[in-house]
């Protein structure tokens, strides 16, 4: 079906395209009768403005680019739902890109978003990203960027995260209170800020409670189950194996869970386990996984609000805003050495 254009309206009414354009915009330069004729014809022919042409005129597309590592990760799916909740209400469309934890793909996504004239970018960086030049370049050109969850310290812009330190501290403290003496940590990649913050929370809790800190009880894994499975097997093979494990994410914890089961050990009697994120899968494992819950939906909402404000009022944000959201500890059978299962904010 042929798309109706301004030229078609102008030809039908024997008017200039500029007159048609001004009439559609409600310009006071155009008479009431002419406006009425133009609008009636536009409605009858189902005329719709060309969004590309409008974006060239207004310098805005009302599109927001969002880059996440994996849409299949339930955490990011919930974050996206929060983003869309705010964006839709504010008249913006959300265009989703996946980096698949790949630096080169992330770079291409950023270029595509910038070159296609999206109004701004929301991003959680990939685990393989160590060079942030692709973000710095567009940020220096004034392109609005807001980081969430995995944020970039090298760029002075708005960001949204959770209190990773406090969440990790609570998880480790819980393991200590369950009687664990040798608590290991399966961390994420060390170059990511969330990994370092969670490692610091783990160490702080051990220090505060007088528990030993041993470097060989801290092992790094990518934020996926396969890498965590391999890392945990190494921990379990040690002569003095841990009796508690705090994992830096639920995906890592699921790998730990598999390794513990594979070794013929029980949770929590042989090893107590706590993850971070509280994915829907956590409650379905056997035994169900204790985890630090993150407000993913609220993170998405907060990030979208910051970006839209940045797009609409760029000069009002000389100081970057960092929104840090609270976590809560959800205790289940994987770590609770007792009969009751509780849900609390220890």
TrEMBL record:
Coiled coil: none annotated. SMART domains: HTH_LACI. Signal peptide: none annotated. GO terms for molecular function: DNA-binding transcription factor activity; transcription cis-regulatory region binding. InterPro entries: HTH_LacI, Lambda_DNA-bd_dom_sf, Peripla_BP/Lac1_sug-bd_dom, Peripla_BP_I. It comes from the Bacteria. Residues 4-58 form the HTH lacI-type domain. Keywords: DNA-binding, Transcription, Transcription regulation. This is LacI family transcriptional regulator. It comes from Spirosoma radiotolerans.
């Amino acid at each position: 079906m042929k798309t109706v254009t301004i030229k078609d309206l102008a030809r039908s009414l024997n008017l200039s395209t500029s007159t048609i354009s001004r009439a559609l915009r409600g310009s006071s330069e155009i008479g009431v009768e002419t406006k009425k004729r133009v609008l009636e014809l536009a409605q009858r022919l189902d005329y719709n403005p060309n969004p590309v042409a409008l974006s060239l005129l207004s310098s805005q597309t009302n599109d927001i680019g969002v880059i996440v590592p994996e849409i299949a990760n339930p955490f990011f799916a919930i974050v996206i739902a929060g983003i869309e909740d705010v964006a839709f209400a504010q008249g913006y469309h959300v265009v989703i890109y996946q980096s698949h934890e790949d630096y080169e793909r992330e770079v291409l996504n950023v270029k595509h978003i910038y070159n296609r004239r999206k109004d701004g970018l929301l991003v959680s960086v990939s685990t393989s990203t160590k060079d942030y030049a692709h973000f710095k370049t567009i940020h220096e050109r004034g392109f609005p960027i807001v980081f969430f969850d995995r944020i970039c310290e090298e760029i002075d812009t708005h960001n949204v995260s959770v209190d990773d330190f406090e969440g990790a501290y609570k998880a480790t403290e819980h393991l200590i209170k369950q009687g664990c003496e040798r608590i290991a940590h399966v961390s994420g990649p060390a170059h990511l800020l969330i990994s370092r913050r969670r490692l610091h929370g783990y160490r702080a809790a051990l220090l505060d409670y007088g528990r030993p800190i041993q470097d060989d009880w801290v092992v790094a894994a990518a934020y996926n189950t396969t890498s965590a499975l391999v890392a945990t097997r190494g921990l379990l093979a040690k002569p003095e194996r841990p009796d508690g494990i705090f994992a830096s994410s639920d995906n890592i914890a699921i790998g730990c869970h598999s390794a513990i089961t594979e070794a013929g050990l029980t949770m929590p009697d042989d090893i107590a386990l706590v993850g971070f994120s509280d994915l829907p899968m956590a409650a379905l494992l056997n035994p169900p996984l204790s985890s630090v819950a993150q407000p993913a939906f609220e993170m998405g909402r907060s990030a979208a609000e910051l970006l839209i404000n940045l797009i609409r009022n760029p000069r009002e944000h000389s100081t970057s805003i960092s929104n840090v959201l609270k976590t809560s500890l959800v205790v289940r059978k994987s770590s609770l050495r007792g009969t009751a299962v509780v849900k609390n904010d220890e």
